[in-house]
Amino acid sequence: MNASPESGTVFIVDDDASFLKSVSRLLRAAGYSVQAFESAEKFLAQLAPDISGCVLADLQMPGLDGLELQAALAQSVNPLPVVFLSAQGDIPKTVLAMRRGAEDFLTKLSPKEKLLDAVRRALARGAQEQRGRERLRELRGRFDMLTPRELEVLEYVVRGRMNKEIAADLKINERTVKLHRTNLTRKLQVQSAVELTHLVEAAGLFKRDQSA
Fold it and tell me: Rounded to 10 degrees, what is the CA torsion of 136, 139, 141, 145?
């Protein structure tokens, strides 16, 4: 198995120096880019929004343990997928880790093929999720260009309100509403109200109001 350069980095977090070294060697031999950390705190200190990859973490560690690392990642700007390794099986913690979105949970005695497969899946998932976050940032960047009034009009548009109704509610001229709608389609790079609604849904805007 050879990893592509686009796969990202495997971040190994384990307080066992000898295991850290052996797993790093295995993954590098498989073609992966690897960075090793002896604690969750040291790993989190260098986590940045543009880092791509996955985390291979020990469950039991001094300081922040594996589950606490997973929780910290979930709240971060870059929630990388996690594959857990443990010296022994722990069913309750395994269930909790998987419920929280862990890619896999393996014992340290698992065959290397299982470990490599879990890393491959975690990297693929990480790349897909990162593309989704980049798309969301790009979409929200478009909405940031709108004026407060254009955002007001946009909210009415995605609720299916007519220009005359919008004008009456906002106490502005219907011609002004049309001008705002033209600006919306230009700035948001859409051609129709349907596209506009889909874009708003993709960006996660007006969720509470749209249910009304």
Answer: -150
